[in-house]
Design goal:
- By secondary structure, the protein is α/β, with parallel strands linked by helices.
- It folds into 2 domains: 56 residues, no CATH class; 131 residues, Transcription Regulator spoIIAA.
- Helices cover 43% and strands 20% of the residues.
- It is built from 5 helices and 6 strands, in the order ααβββαβαββα.
- A 6-stranded mixed β-sheet has the order 1-2-3-4-5-6, sandwiched between helices.
- β1 and β2 form a beta hairpin.
- α3 runs parallel beside α4.
- The longest helix is centred in the first third of the chain and has 38 residues.
Length: 201
């Protein structure tokens, strides 16, 4: 049965003419099968669309950026190495520290247990960190402890190696956590790349 012929013949008719009745009778089973085929195809397409929507919904954000006054931050997740890189820039403030810490916590939900964190502090003014601001940064690091972070690596400038002290933990709270202070992101990435090998802190 020629579907194009049927379309041309009956497209603009509500019912078949007497002269076309035999053709209409022959066409009925064919058209029913065609409708069933189209319904099945439509159902399959709808299932594929739903599956695609779920994949998009599940796909975690890999980059998050924010700023508050003179303080800004960029959070990046590398799924391949299960690593979060946080770049802190500028002069922090209490409000910004709170917003930033919440962003880090939200992004950390996309990491698998045993993840690593690189905190780039090279362009971050730690001299103004007070107790209130420190609370929010420590809150994030305590979360890392509870969620089985493996490495926390702080990247600082050569002259500021002691500047990351506001993130330190008591020895008993970091016994299962390896913490390093380095002077470049590449050095931090090499530590993660060489997991399992002996590395001097």
């Amino acid at each position: 049965m020629d579907l194009e012929l049927l379309k041309k013949k009956f497209r603009h008719k509500a019912e078949a003419d007497v002269k076309d009745i035999n053709l209409a009778i022959k066409a009925a089973p064919f058209l029913v099968k065609e409708v069933i085929r189209l319904e099945e195809e439509l159902e399959l397409k709808e299932k594929m669309i739903e599956k695609f929507k779920k994949r998009i919904k599940r796909q975690p954000p890999l980059v998050s950026k924010g700023e508050k006054d003179d303080f800004n931050w960029v959070i990046k997740i590398n799924e391949e190495t299960n690593t979060m890189l946080i770049q802190f820039n500028g002069v922090p403030n209490k409000s910004g520290a709170k917003i930033c810490s919440n962003a880090v916590i939200n992004m950390s939900e996309n990491l698998e247990p045993g993840f690593s964190v690189i905190s780039d502090l090279r362009t971050f003014d730690t001299s103004v960190i007070n107790q209130r601001m420190s609370f929010y940064f420590r809150k994030v690091h305590y979360l890392f402890l509870r969620t089985n972070a493996r490495y926390i690596i702080r990247v600082v400038s050569e002259k500021d190696k002691e500047a990351a002290g506001f993130l330190d933990f008591p020895p008993d709270q970091k016994k299962n956590l390896k913490m390093f202070t380095v002077t470049s992101v590449d050095e931090a990435k090499n530590i993660i790349k060489n997991m399992g090998k002996y590395l001097r802190k």
